[in-house]
Design brief:
The protein is an alpha/beta fold. The protein has a domain at about 30-130 and about 205-285: 3-Layer(aba) Sandwich (Rossmann fold). Helix content is about 30%, strand content about 25%. It has eleven helices and twelve strands. The chain has helices spanning about 10, 80-85, 120-125, 140-150, 155-170, 175, 190-200, 220-230, 245-250, 270-275, 280-285; strands at about 20-25, 25, 40-50, 55-65, 70-75, 100-105, 110, 125-130, 205-210, 235-240, 255-260, 260-270. It has a six-stranded mixed beta sheet, sandwiched between helices. A four-stranded antiparallel beta sheet has the order 4-3-6-7, covered by helices on one side. Strands 1-2 form a two-stranded antiparallel ribbon. A hairpin with a 2-residue loop joins strand 6 (about 100-105) and strand 7. Helix 7 (about 190-200) packs parallel to helix 8. The longest helix is centred in the middle third of the chain and has 14 residues, at about 155-170. The two termini are about 30 Å apart. Bound molecules: adenosine-5'-diphosphate (ADP) and magnesium ion. The site of magnesium ion (MG) has 3 residues, from helix 2.
Length: about 290
């Protein structure tokens, strides 16, 4: 994309109330380094601040997430990756002390608008968690539940088809088709995580949020999830939080680097890893902290 396609992030970001703070002698940037805007945004955050009580966890985060891209959120523990991810489908609403300022737009609609149906929103912007969390129900019911409550199936045949296609897209139909009535919780960790991805897919989401989906998995199960992401990217916009830079490099088109609640730098994954601009990004990528 041409540089002219992007506006300066500075022009849209609100004036900071606090000045840059030094970390190990380095300065956090006033505004994000790199192109935060894209031509075809699916989700856009604008000046997002998130607080837990008095504590600010995100500071003035402005970034676009493009249609059908995989974007990785990376950065040291506690920098706000999960907080931003959860703000993209209002999962933070479930935390009493949590408050958000600014805007999060899904297809140009403010998802925090009073008129927005949160249950519907979370179907459009699905989520997969760090620890696989199948319902204590059968494999079939895990996938069928969402389509049922959202009225996506007219009859039993429809529902069967949705379950089969979701498990197929999640790459576990062949493994599970003969034991759909067994509990989802009885599967291996990697299978449970793919079941949770099938559950998210079953309600036709536009965006899938994944918060460190492989951190509890062994390398083989991790590789399977990464293969799955590579397949899903043709149909969905995917936001993945990962503490593994190798994983970010393998699966994502763009990478966003966070530090102490700020989006320090964002760019094409290859460029950001080969040629990080900000000193903090450089330090993190070269393993000086994290
Ligand atoms: N439920 C919560 N209540 C209070 N503080 C929280 C909560 N969740 C996260 N935080 C704080 O917000 C900051 C960002 O956390 P988080 O988004 O979980 O970071 P990351 O995912 O990058 O490790 C941290 O300082 C963390 O302690
Ligand atoms: Mg986290």
């Amino acid at each position: 994309m041409e540089d002219a396609d992007y506006m300066s992030a500075a022009s849209l970001q609100k004036k900071e109330t606090s000045t840059s703070s030094g970390i190990e002698g380095r300065l956090l940037p006033e505004t994000t380094v790199g192109n935060v805007f894209v031509q075809n945004p699916r989700i856009s955050t604008r000046g997002v601040n998130v607080f837990y009580g008095d504590k600010q966890a995100l500071v003035n985060v402005t970034v676009d997430i493009a249609e059908k891209e995989v974007i990785a959120f990376i950065g040291p523990s506690g920098c706000g990756k999960s907080t931003l991810l959860r703000s993209l489908n209002r999962m933070n609403d479930t935390i009493d002390s949590c408050r958000l300022e600014g805007q999060v737009l899904l297809d140009e609609q403010d998802i925090y608008d009073k008129s927005v149906d949160v249950v519907g929103l979370r179907a459009r912007v699905g989520m997969v968690f760090q620890k696989a969390n199948p319902f204590p129900k059968s494999i079939f019911e895990n996938v069928a539940y969402g389509p049922k409550i959202h009225g996506l199936a007219e009859n039993k045949t429809d529902l069967n088809n949705i379950v089969e296609s979701s498990l197929t897209r999640a790459g576990i139909w062949d493994e599970l088709k003969d034991r759909l009535d067994q509990p989802g919780t009885g599967l291996s960790g990697g299978q449970q995580q793919r079941l949770c991805i099938a559950r998210a897919i079953a309600v036709n989401p536009e965006v899938i949020l994944m918060d460190e989906p492989c951190s509890a998995l062994d390398p083989i199960a991790t590789a399977k999830i990464e293969e799955l992401i590579a397949e899903l990217r043709s149909e969905y916009t995917i936001v993945i939080v990962t503490h593994s830079m190798q994983q970010a490099a393998r699966v994502s088109d763009r990478t966003a680097y966070f530090h102490l609640g700020k989006l320090v730098e964002v760019g094409k994954t290859k460029e950001l890893f080969i040629n990080p601009v900000h000193e903090l990004t450089q330090d993190y990528i070269t393993g000086r902290f994290g």
